[in-house]
Each structure stands twice: as structure tokens, then as C-alpha cells.
Specification:
With 301 residues, this protein is of the alpha+beta class. Among the domains are: 85 residues, no CATH class; 67 residues, no CATH class. Helix content is 25%, strand content 25%. The strands form 4 sheets. It has a 6-stranded antiparallel sheet with strand order 3-6-5-4-7-8, with no helix packed on it. Strand 9 and strand 10 form a beta hairpin. The longest helix has 21 residues.
Length: 301
């Protein structure tokens, strides 16, 4: 018999909801049934973030480091302005109306400033003034924090020098705990960064040490776990690879059972945990294992 020849099976949000209700022995009949199911689906995604089960959302991000600036957003953060060319990297900018301040870390385009997490809230159409250059421009939009806020955690980081050349070099920087960073006595030391601390606030930041000097142009390159996109409209698909479909359906059924089918909670929880274990076991890095024999031996008389 001929096979289908297709490999494009995909469930949309409505399909997941229908499957989950059927596992609960129920049917989705009202608009509120769909609303509560979408809410539960987003909570499943939050559960996966806590368990570290979304490696398909890993993003590699690069941030230029500025001399004398020790704290950076854990993602891309820019301020749109009418003109940026005359600003100085590393200087502090201030909003004329809001009084908000931030440091300029790079000039990604002629109409944008890469900035640190602001102290305060920049407003649209306010005057932005540089503390060193005395340059003035006008903001053309409010700062969008969505990319930074969607960062769950960092997996690793390097400091890159001579980026884009044949002499490019990536040097690993070690991650330290909050206590280790807090007790570092010389936070304002200028040198090539060798350590970083992830401050996991609602808007997460990366605190690096030592503070970058001017010896070279440093780029912080890091892998970060990124939040799975929300489940909104029923006609949308979800940002989940094929191998995780069973786990997502089982998780949604369990979450719905907590509200609608308490007599099936135990069964559906067990099914969810089994599907999760299989998915988590499969969702891992694979690498060759090399074993090197040694000729050392001990002679015991």
C-alpha cells in the first residue's frame, strides 16, 4: 500500500483544546470553555519554562560592550530617535520630559540607540540629551522591553574580540551567583570581562565583571532560553516542534482536569509526567564521547 508522502501534520490551538477536553471526558461548548483552555495552555508553557523544556527557543544574542558600563539588558533594547550619529558610546542620556536616564552601549543605526535598562520611563516625542556629547534628538517611540522580558535564562556566554575578522577570538566568561557578584570588592575595575551574573528580574539584566575597558572592542555573545509564544487565537498554531505534541496535549488535559474533571486528575497527571519525561529525555544535546587511556599504573608489592 502507498504511504501518504506527507510530513506536515500540525495541530492548531483549537485542535489541542478539543483533544484535551476529550481526554477529560468533556466537550468544549461555549466561548468561556475556549477562553479557560487558552489560559491553561499558556500556564503549561510557563511550567515548561520552569522545567527548562523549550530548547528549540534558544537564541544566540550579541551585545556590544561599552567602556565603563557594567550592566546590560539580557536581550536587545533600543531607543528609537530622529538621529543618533552624534551620540557617544558610554555616555548617559536623559529624557527632557520624563527625566529617565540610561547609558548608550552602541549605535546600531542612524535612528536608534542601544541602551541599558532605563532608570525611569522614556516618553515618545521627548527630547533626548547626551551628557558627554551634549547632542539633542527626539524619541520617536517608547522603549519596547518585550525581547528582554522574554528571556528566561542564559545558558552560557563568551566575550568576543576582533569580531568578523580572521583574528576573531571567543573567550569563555564564567557565571557567578548573586552572592559572589555582591561580594566582589572591586566592581569598577576596568579590564576584559571574565565573569557575569544574571539578575533575573521581570526585565532581566547581565552584570559583568570587570567593567569593560577601552583596550579592545568587546562583544558579549550568549545563548538564552526564550519564552514560547503565547496561545492567543484558536486558529493559530503553537511554537512547539512535532516531537512535543503529545506532551502539550497531555499537559493541557491535566490542567483542564484540575478545573473540570477532578475525578481524572490522577490519571491525566501521570500521563502528563510520562510524556514530559520522554520529551525531556529526548530534548538534549548530543556529542561524541572520547576516552583517552593512560599508561600510569601502581605497583603494589
Amino acid at each position: 500500500m502507498a504511504t501518504s508522502g506527507s510530513t506536515d501534520f500540525e495541530l492548531d490551538i483549537a485542535d489541542y483544546i478539543e483533544e484535551a477536553f476529550e481526554r477529560c471526558g468533556l466537550e468544549a461548548r461555549t466561548g468561556y470553555d475556549l477562553k479557560t483552555a487558552r489560559r491553561s495552555l499558556n500556564l503549561v508553557f510557563a511550567d515548561w519554562a520552569n522545567r527548562g523544556l523549550n530548547r528549540w527557543t534558544i537564541r544566540t544574542t550579541s551585545i556590544l560592550l561599552a567602556q565603563g558600563v557594567p550592566i546590560y539588558p539580557a536581550g536587545i533594547l533600543t531607543l528609537s530617535v530622529t538621529a543618533s550619529a552624534n551620540f557617544t558610546v558610554g555616555e548617559t542620556i536623559t529624557g527632557g520630559t520624563s527625566g529617565a536616564t540610561a547609558s548608550v552601549t552602541s549605535l546600531p543605526s542612524a535612528t536608534s540607540l542601544a541602551i541599558t535598562i532605563p532608570d525611569g520611563t522614556f516618553q515618545n516625542a521627548e527630547t533626548i540629551t547626551g551628557s558627554t556629547s551634549a547632542t539633542a534628538t527626539t524619541s520617536t517611540a517608547v522603549v519596547d522591553f518585550s525581547d528582554v522580558n522574554a528571556t528566561i535564562d542564559l545558558l552560557g556566554a563568551v566575550v568576543r574580540t576582533n569580531a568578523g575578522t580572521t583574528n576573531q577570538s571567543d573567550i569563555t566568561v564564567g557565571r557567578v551567583s548573586r552572592d559572589q557578584y555582591l561580594t566582589t570588592p572591586s566592581k569598577n575595575t576596568l579590564a576584559r570581562p571574565s565573569q557575569y551574573y544574571v539578575n533575573r528580574q521581570i526585565t532581566p539584566s547581565i552584570d559583568i565583571w570587570p567593567t569593560p575597558d577601552s583596550a579592545q572592542q568587546y562583544t558579549l555573545v550568549f545563548d538564552r532560553l526564550y519564552r514560547v509564544q503565547d496561545a492567543d487565537s484558536q486558529v493559530n498554531t503553537v511554537e512547539v516542534p512535532f516531537r512535543f505534541y503529545p506532551c502539550l496535549a497531555a499537559g493541557l488535559a491535566y490542567y483542564l482536569a484540575l478545573k473540570r474533571a477532578p475525578n481524572r486528575v490522577g490519571l491525566l497527571k501521570q500521563a502528563y509526567e510520562e510524556e514530559f519525561d520522554r520529551a525531556a529525555t529526548e530534548d538534549r544535546d548530543r556529542a561524541n564521547l572520547s576516552l583517552t587511556p593512560t599508561r600510569d599504573f601502581y605497583y603494589i608489592n
